[in-house]
Amino acid sequence: MQILCCWESLLCRYRRRSYSAVEADLNSSCIPTRIVKSEEIWAALWAKVLYNCALNPLSAILEVPYGALGQQAETRQIMNRVVSEIFDVMKAKGVIVPFCDADDYFRFFMERLLPATVDHRSSMLQDMMMGRQTEIDALNGAISQYGRKLGLPTPYNDLICALIKFKERPADSGKNFNESYGFSWSLIESHQVVA
């Protein structure tokens, strides 16, 4: 494991030292470190968002490890659509990641990332099994929120959020699914979503 440190944030503490000296200090303290520009940190964070949004909630909804999601055409299509919506949001926000487009990322995801974690059970699934709140609002929920602010449709992320929130809710709360989560099938129909 390596820690990425944003050079701009280190400037406050180490004003008179070069970034290579700070990096050397951290590395000599047995903390593997590489100092990078803030743009690289944001790219790494968004790459993690892509991975987690595509896998975590679907694994939790279906109660399967990641590998099972890659085996079925239907779940691959859902993950691909989630990724495409995130790329639309990233493009509108001006986020730069080291992939040409959603298809380029999804190929990398299916060929390199998913095979490395085939037996992994998502933290979201583990949270749900333990009766804990999930991080859905910080993942797909954030994408849905960005989409609304930017005027971009995110029907797959919206639906996944609604399904996770439904599974999180105690069975006896008595609320209607649509009332509880603001989900509308017209969102799906108006965007011609095909599962």
Low-pLDDT stretches = none
Overall morphology: globular
- How many domains, in number, for the residues? 2
| Separation of the first and last Cα atoms | 37 Å
Mean pLDDT comes to 84
N-to-C SSE string, H for helix and E for strand = EHHEHHHHHHHHH
Please describe the topology of this protein.
Blueprint: E1 3-6, H1 7-11, H2 19-28, E2 33-36, H3 38-62, H4 66-71, H5 73-93, H6 102-113, H7 123-129, H8 140-150, H9 155-168, H10 177-181, H11 185-190
Helix pairs in contact: 3-5, 3-7, 3-9, 5-6, 5-8, 8-9
Structural description of this entry:
- The protein has helices at residues 7-11, 19-28, 38-62, 66-71, 73-93, 102-113, 123-129, 140-150, 155-168, 177-181, 185-190; strands at 3-6, 33-36.
- With 195 residues, it is mainly alpha-helical.
- It has two domains: 3-36, no CATH class; 40-190, Orthogonal Bundle (N-(1-d-carboxylethyl)-l-norvaline Dehydrogenase, domain 2).
- The protein has a two-stranded parallel sheet.
- The chain is globular.
- The two termini are 37 Å apart.
